[in-house]
Design brief:
- The complex is a heterodimer of chains A (405) and B (130).
- With 405 residues, chain A is of the alpha/beta class.
- Chain A folds into two domains: 134 residues, Aspartate Aminotransferase, domain 1 (Alpha-Beta Complex), CATH 3.90.1150.10; 242 residues, Type I PLP-dependent aspartate aminotransferase-like (Major domain) (Aspartate Aminotransferase, domain 2).
- Chain A contains twelve helices and 13 strands.
- In chain A, strand 5, helix 6 and strand 6 form a beta-alpha-beta unit.
- Chain A starts with a strand and ends in a 13-residue tail after the last helix.
- By secondary structure, chain B is of the alpha+beta class.
- In chain B, helix 2 packs across helix 5.
- Chain B is elongated and about 50 Å long.
- Chain B starts with a helix and ends with a helix.
- Classes of the chains: A alpha/beta (405), B alpha+beta (130).
- Chains A and B meet through helix 8 and helix 12 of A and strand 1, strand 2, strand 3, helix 2 and helix 5 of B.
Amino acid sequence: MKFPIYLDSHSTTPIDPRVLETMLPYFTEKFGNAASRNHAFGWEAEEAVEVARKQIARLIHADPKELVFTSGATESDNLALRGVVEMYREKGDHMITNSTEHRAVLDTAKALESKRGVKVTYLHVDKSGLVSPDDVRHAITDKTILISIMLANNEIGSINPIREIGKIAKEKGILFHCDATQGVGKIPVDVQEMGIDLMSFTAHKMYGPKGVGALYVRKKAPRVRIAPMIDGGGHERGMRSGTLPVPLVVGFGKACELCEQEMTAEARRLAAMRDRLEAGIMNGLDEVYLNGHPTQRLPHNLNVSFAYVEGESLLMGLKEIALSSGSACTSATLEPSYVLRALGVGSDLAHSSIRFGLGRFTTDDEVEYTVKRIIETVTRLREMSPLYEMAKEGVDLKSVQWAAH
Amino acid sequence: MAYSEKVVDHFNNPRNVGSFKKEDEGVGTGIVGAPECGDVMKLQIKVQGERIVDAKFKTFGCGSAIASSSLATEWMKGKTVEEAGNIKNTDIVHELNLPPVKIHCSVLAEDAIKAALADYKKKAEASTNM
């Protein structure tokens, strides 16, 4: 086994060697600018970009002309929200999103509130982390111009009822943006069937390169228009100027093609592995709580809280395994995960949470090793934990008057 | 975040983990922090005469919180009650090379020391008044 073990696939994924191989010539001999219309270097680059566009479009059931390349999902989210507000401001000033969205959506929405006077409704999720389509329906006003709901959550992996929300948006004639960063390439995504008008996603979450993403912008029924954030040479049909990073785009395309071919088998394999990880941990330890939805979640995701153990210390004890925690101590704000808090998970358990993200290159041995090490480390830290001791003595921790600081 | 070698050492080999019976004579207990804040420290001392002959801790918290309380028990052992009262959080920060975001861990450790000493004194006074 090679150390450290990587189990943080929601953060990023390694480039698949097959993807890298496809990209390499476009750094060296095929270095042309895809916008150069008057020589062979440009034609070659443009052709490669168009192949990639088709590969990406196919994965999400879109038309290749409906894709706008960006630097990544954060830019795509910004472009979707700001671009729609800018373009449709006269029609209304209200948008709907949800409190567990990625910061790229939430912070953009907040900026639009404070700088552009947009009114934003932040929907609450249920205790499994799902947005209710009924809540979306009830939040709609005659001023609503955009609904932005994520496909799958980056911390807990819960998969929202996008199809139902898309249907409501269609029915009411409101544009629907979906941040699908965590879902594309992992679970089937069909922009037609799901009624999505704009969709953000990125290459590096699906074994492609960092630095390239896309915004799907519907062309027909309705034809969506967005104001650009970056002006320049009018690339990407004027929606996002700037020379395309051809090698990255080529890699993005190849990554999508591989996902399309292998997704079904990969999802099955990862879900089985994830279930073994979950069962191994749950069987070996008491008071471990699953965060998120028990079944309606990404196949490679597991998020659990280990009561009486603080997340960062757990990560420190497992330094040969790359994991992520919702603990405040791992964040700059010293606040525990806002996603877990939105689910109604108490601060104490939010501080105790660990996110596992399995991936294409995760092995059975790695999962087995992780189970063993989690059990060892949690047990050791609980022996050191005054809370565990009190709980075992029968003290109700909720009734204790803590000296909060 | 990169931890200092001393923090890693205390985390991997914590000194004086454990508990004394709260009711025992000469034992002072300090519990500070809150689970919602992500750290709770329990620090206990055992005093004979004026001297702290043993100290134990249990901590729920990040690596720096565990290291701060582990170090605190090490420093308290052998000191008189009065001397232990002079341990400052800044000494802990300095010894463990704690970064600014972890200073609160050392503050908590100082609070735990003070709480344990106060508890001891209170118990000692109560028993002499009896």
